[in-house]
Amino acid sequence: VQLQASGGGLVQAGGSLRLSCAASGITFSAINMGWFRQAPGKEREYVVGMTRGGTPTNYADSVKGRFTISRDNAKNTVYLQMNNLKPEDTGVYYCNNLVGTFTWGQGTLVTVSS
What we know:
With 114 residues, this protein is mainly beta. The protein contains no helices and 9 strands. The protein has strands at residues 2-6, 9-12, 17-24, 33-38, 44-50, 67-72, 77-82, 91-97, 108-113.
């Protein structure tokens, strides 16, 4: 399994980013996927998930109304649209299955400046 996240960068508070995560080595369309993040000095945490059929699962309270997950099963890719970013959104963002049991990729770093 390979999970390659991309799209991170440095953005000012209030800005937007769109993350992508391309998966290989799995039957992507059969997997419920999720986004996770790890802030500096903190544990990795769940952000949001999406069922294989495209239904979002619960958003973390901290991102509700600002982040939107989507997926394209034809491209084996899951996306995370992040709007109105806040400094506390800073961290490395990863995708994985909903329970996080695949080998973690390197993630993509998001830095939000105030």
